[in-house]
Amino acid sequence: MFFNIFQTGIFERQFRRQLLVTLSATLITFCHGIALGWLSPMLPQLLSEKDTPLDFFIDVGQASWLGAAISLGGISGNFSFSYLMNRFGRKVSLYALALPNTCIWFLFYFAQSIEWLYVARVCAGLTGGGMFVVLPIFIGEIADNSIRGRLCSFFTLTMNTGIMVGFIVASHIPYHVIPCAVVGLPVLYLFLATRFPETPQQLLVWSREEEAQRALKFYRHCDGPQVTKQQERDYQKQFDEMRLAIQQRSKDAGSVGLTVSDFCNKRALKAIATGLMLMIAQIFSGTFAFINYMSNIFDAVHTQLDPNTNTIIIGAVQIVGTLASMYLVDRYGRKILLVVSCAGSGLGAAGLGLYAFYAEETEVDLSAYASWLPVTLMALIIFIANVGVVSVTMVVLVELLPQKIRAVATSICLGCLSFFAFTSLKTFPLMMFHFGLAATMWFSASVSALCLFYVVVCVEETKGRSIYD
């Protein structure tokens, strides 16, 4: 299946630079994934006075704030990077993502108190909030319509790969070695980001038409001696379409600017509502909280495998789920993946909740199942979520929103995503502590069922849609 992901076009000559630039740009999501994955295996150590690798240890309340602090940074990152992107362009925003990510590792290394870790997690939120605003739009603008879904899925693939690496290194490598090993990656990312041009759409907005032509030729691989007449015609058609769309948008914006009516028409309201519902599905179905508190979940259900080993297994499952999404998204469309994802993650959460109920509230002997059933159910949840709602949400959001309000509406939706993530990460350990894991899982299953109903009834297919519509 891995090779089938790429066999229909993505390695063809005209798409090769789009792929390489996408891989370069998503290196920052790999770095961010490591910072996300770091928390789950490290949290039990920080909660233990005996095993803590630092000069202090934390309690459950501080642990919940440590988990939730990333979302406070996320809200700031959503809006600050949206302003930065609209004011200074996509490339400057890409450069800026390296700064907070680099700060994370210095703060982890030199941490003298819990406040240092809080600030590090806020920096992780700034990186994540900025990534979710900048990268989907950047990749969406450089990608050809026929491969946009797969290229955008690299965003999730690299982040999930980073999360698994974070699980592994935090489980098996000494605390102070990890920042030393990782801090060079954002520097490498910054260097790679200087090797490709601004998006042609942004250059047209700035009325730099010649540079926009060169940029589009670069991304469509039409700037060499081997370009055929057909490729030249296809390039010219794309550029003319792009220029007319940008000119019309500039004309509309210049005459009246953004108004309330731009957000209150039927198409815009439905697109924003769909975006918000998909954000709810992505966060409150539980998968984001599961990743951050994975080791604690496995410890609560008394699995016979080491909780950190289970966590690493789940990290690998995330990657497989994202690869499956990349194989399916441009073949079968977005909506079917969202339907399957909401249904499957809901059933998995309900099943894990049932197992947790018997493990926590009854004296039923579950030893025959403890070595495989909890990790299997969690693997199902994480796999099926990454096939659809985790990987496809940003693709659908970019394709659904009208072009005129896309940047602002994306920031609004992602600001809500960060707020939802804060609420989830702050309350999840408290819900586990006060109500038990079973009730927490059943809540996640209920949210998945609600989102499934919305997707089936209200979400339209966006496969193959032009981003200029």
Automatic annotation (TrEMBL):
Entry superkingdom: Eukaryota
Listed transmembrane segments: 20-43, 63-85, 92-110, 116-139, 151-169, 175-192, 271-291, 311-329, 336-357, 377-398, 405-425, 431-457
Location of the protein in the cell: Cell membrane
Keyword Nucleus in annotation: no
Keyword vocabulary terms for this entry: Cell membrane, Membrane, Sugar transport, Transmembrane, Transmembrane helix, Transport
InterPro entries referenced in this protein's UniProt entry, alphabetically: MFS_dom (IPR020846), MFS_ERD6/Tret1-like (IPR044775), MFS_sugar_transport-like (IPR005828), MFS_trans_sf (IPR036259), MFS_Trehalose_Transporter (IPR050549), Sugar_transporter_CS (IPR005829)
Keyword Transport applies: yes
Signal sequence residues: none
Membrane-related topology note: Multi-pass membrane protein
CDD domains assigned to the protein according to its UniProt record, in alphabetical order: MFS_GLUT6_8_Class3_like
UniProt cross-references to Pfam families, sorted A to Z: Sugar_tr (PF00083)
SUPFAM superfamilies found in the cross-reference section: MFS general substrate transporter
Protein name: Facilitated trehalose transporter Tret1
Lineage of source species: Eukaryota, Metazoa, Ecdysozoa, Arthropoda, Hexapoda
